[in-house]
């Protein structure tokens, strides 16, 4: 079938397109078509017509382009491919397949298919080509199907001005992209005479959004980002103006928004390669909002956009975090990587909420994971040869659905993960059998105030009124965070550990002390291990499995002296002589214990030892500096070569011995809350060797701290109680004996447990 020619005066362009679907290996009759294959690409599915994604071919000066819409990158057959064959092309079925900063042209196939090959040859003015597509049952089809499209035709002779316009034998249908130039549009003006400059940017009309977009995309593929960026911006503005026109037909709006949404990768890539991180984040955030608007408009248009179209739109959002990952991977310093993920919080919040609202709960969990503790995961993944380098660490692998399932399966415990975005709370409960439950969005306006109130009350809750107020705070937190979770989603055994992944202000919440609806503390129902992100689990598990097996021994640094000076304006540190006198009771629990007190409780006591102890214990003071988190420190003995401040930034360059570290000092779990978790001592110590930490959220009494420490070591040294259960049982015992929550609730367990 040869469509009418459209082009410049005296030029001619004619193509024939034949599509042969195959059902279960049986070839079906060929469908004749035109260049706008979306008008004729009707695929048989159990006897019912099913439209494919519209696409078309354009003949250009020296180029042939196959464009798929919706699409993100064109496949170009330019001079470098003349008389050659294009390689094999794959769709991006998962976000991890995004090629990263190097723009590799990818052929986006119709949404029914997930893989294919494309071969095109240029012989003078003749074009021949074949596209072979494979449909996957996972995309919604009952069995695999194959499709073959052959293209033959001619393009305008090289001595005549090309048309650069899509050809069609009939008017656009509702399934044809509305941004396609109509056949009777005026041709572009002839190019000026003179030798061609291969580096020059061709001139296109400033109001021709499709040509601007096409040219900009071509420039991106040629890595001419600075030239492409303003053209993309101009084209996007034209599409946005068309989509927002008050008289715009809903189908046209959907088409315009689709074009805008699929321009996002080009714009993001330009910002990435030009070093504009703020512009990149703005672009990605706009891309999410575009998809939200697109999904809502398509659903209300009545134009037949169904679940498959919605999935296609969501799929485009899944690979957007890859641009942030690409930026982060280029940063050397740990602090720069922290700041990069921190700056992306609005984007990750929008993406997570969008996917959650769409019912794509697993994708929303992946997006939430992609926006937390990424620099922390880099540190944990650093090689043993650079243990654990705070600069230049390799970027951790990106969270994906497959990776997340693998992590959860290997972990083998129930996980409760939270995300707080503004006044909204999202909850995921992942069971070891692979079941994923979700709750939300739930109201979260009170969470920040309740967490802050706990930290203000707990250190001084000594009278009956303050104790009652603290109990009300713990009941309020329990009602918001734990009561909505059905018991059937949680382990039935009271000694089975639950891994809790807090977010934002929830990193300041004493989860074991939450009062649930039945009046019990959460610690009475389950041991709790806390982590800022699931992405840390593989590295922690690998470290525990690969490291030398710790002996059943203890290394302790107790009551250092002389103590370092306090921060400006702070009170001098008091000696912990009461703890020093009683610490032999803890040391006697282990067959091998090395206790350093006074001047010996210095940083030199942490030198690598063979065999390493199973537990390292710090019984001292600590200072958490929220405004200079990496200067937070554990107080050790001051020596001639060290000021006695074991700072968080210095811990990153140590290899702390022991699989379990107990930081029995005030506020060792405090610090600056960021997208990377708590920046402070907890992050540094977990990156420096141990897989499990016992920390404190606020100030603790010396006697209460010793009681917690003694009970924890008593159970741990017995050898049959993992750390999370050991801490849980001692807190249960203290609660049952009448100890008030402020005395035991500040102690939390971070890590594997």
What Rg, in angstroms, do the CA atoms define? 31 Å
The helix content, as a percent range, equals 25-40%
Number of helices: 22
Largest sheet features = 7 strands, antiparallel
Parts with pLDDT < 50 across at least 5 consecutive residues = 1-118, 135-144, 154-196, 383-392
The tally of strands reads 28
Principal-axes geometry comes out as: elongated
Structural class: alpha+beta
Instruction: Give the CA-CA distance, first to last residue.
Output: 69 Å
Mean pLDDT: 75
Binned strand content: 15-25%
In short:
With 753 residues, the chain is an alpha+beta fold. A hairpin with a 2-residue loop joins strand 10 (113-123) and strand 11 (126-135). The longest helix is centred in the middle third of the chain and has 25 residues, at 277-301.
Quickly list its features:
alpha+beta, 753 residues, 28 strands, 20% strand, seven-stranded antiparallel β-sheet
Task: Compile the SSE list and pairings.
Layout: E1 14-23, E2 26-27, E3 31-33, E4 42-45, E5 48-51, E6 55-59, E7 64-68, E8 75-77, E9 88-90, E10 113-123, E11 126-135, E12 145-154, H1 209-221, H2 225-243, H3 250-261, H4 264-273, H5 277-301, H6 307-318, H7 321-329, H8 334-343, H9 345-357, H10 361-370, H11 374-380, H12 401-411, E13 414-421, E14 424-430, E15 436-443, H13 447-457, H14 464-481, E16 498-501, E17 528-530, H15 537-546, E18 551-560, H16 577-582, H17 584-587, E19 592-598, E20 613-619, E21 622-623, E22 633-635, E23 645-647, H18 648-651, E24 660-664, E25 672-674, E26 677-679, H19 681-687, E27 692-696, H20 702-717, H21 723-736, H22 741-744, E28 747-751
Parallel strand pairs: 13-16, 16-17, 18-19, 18-20, 20-24, 24-27
Antiparallel strand pairs: 1-2, 1-3, 1-12, 4-5, 6-7, 7-8, 9-10, 10-11, 11-12, 13-14, 14-15, 21-22, 22-23, 25-26, 27-28
Helix pairs in contact: 1-2, 2-3, 2-4, 3-5, 4-5, 5-6, 5-7, 5-9, 7-8, 8-11, 9-10, 13-14, 20-21
